[in-house]
């Protein structure tokens, strides 16, 4: 564990081709995980998260969810701050970057949506130059 990531490891399931990882019920991996480890990053410092894993067959069918486990990121000693503003204002202030029509949170590269003045996002600065979507823990 670090201040912004958690590494999970689990025992493999017979017949599983890959796995999906869920944090708080929402899938966090963009593509199926072929190994029995996964690092979830872009997290808040000093926060606790709940995880489950589902085995996938070669055809992509998901099995039952594993038992839930919790993990807590380490405390950074950095005082987390939040800012709510338009995505345009976040980019202008240096809290986000522009990429192909979208605003991405600086450091975590989380997609905040379209780069314009009509989309409002709350960003939490969890360490120097590192922002994630959401509020401080």
Automatic annotation (TrEMBL):
InterPro entries associated with the record: FN3_dom (IPR003961), FN3_sf (IPR036116), Ig-like_fold (IPR013783)
Q: Which residues form the Fibronectin type-III domain?
A: 1-76
PROSITE patterns, per the entry: FN3
Its name, as the record gives it, is Fibronectin type-III domain-containing protein
- Organism (species): Duganella dendranthematis
